[in-house]
Amino acid sequence: MWDNPAALNRASDLLAAAAGLIVLYSVIRFAMVQPLFALREIRVAGSTAHVTLEQVEAIAQRDIHGTFFTLDLARVRSSFEKLPWVRKVDIRRSWPDRIDVDIVEHQPLARWGNVGLVNQQGEVFEAAYDANLPVFVGPAGTSREVAIQYERLRGEFAAIGREPV
User: Fold this and answer.
1) pLDDT value of position 1
2) Distance separating alpha carbons of residues 106 and 120, to the nearest angstrom
3) pTM
4) Residues 134, 135, 139, 143: what is their CA dihedral angle, to the nearest 10 degrees?
5) In terms of Cα–Cα distance, which of 140, 41, 58 is closest to 96?
6) Helix axes 53-63, 73-81, angle to 10 degrees
7) Strand (E) positions, 35-107?
8) Are strands 108-112 and 135-136 parallel, antiparallel or unpaired?
């Protein structure tokens, strides 16, 4: 190999390309963590009747770390989904220094025994709620079917001006 100029040229080209890629990666990685790309704003959208500003601020201080490029969106989404009234969260980066948090809250349909509440999709969740709601009771895992039947009965009772309790 040492006496083959073509092989040596290919080897040196390969080493130069590898070194160039390493330098490029290092420069990009260095730039990503610079304060120039720090997050400066969190915009919360959606109807948030039960999620408070204090809860959002607590999550922001505890779980939102990094820059526009290094923020762990899955971790932030998971933090918001742990709030009692949050059903679904969509988080997006918005150039240059903002993340958009779209919150969908549970809409309570009834109480599920003494365990918690049932939302309109038939999902059981735990949250404090003072309003008078009907109480559903059933085996574990049947809350969706009970909610569907309740909605069907509600439609039928509406025809005679009544509501199931």
Assistant:
1) 67
2) 8
3) 0.69
4) 40
5) 41
6) 140
7) 41-45, 86-94, 98-105
8) parallel
Residue 152, φ and ψ in degrees, nearest 5? -65, -45
Residue type at position 27: V
Longest dimension (CA), the chain: 98
Alpha carbons 131 and 106: distance in angstroms, whole number: 14
Q: Are 124 and 88 in contact (CB under 8 A)?
A: no
pLDDT, tens only, 41-80: 889 888 788 888 888 888 888 888 888 888 888 999 999 9
Instruction: Name which of 138, 102, 98, 100 is nearest 122 in CA terms.
Output: 138
> Which runs of E-coded beta strand occur in 54-132?
86-94, 98-105, 108-112, 116-119, 124-125
User: What's the mean pLDDT in 113-139?
Assistant: 86
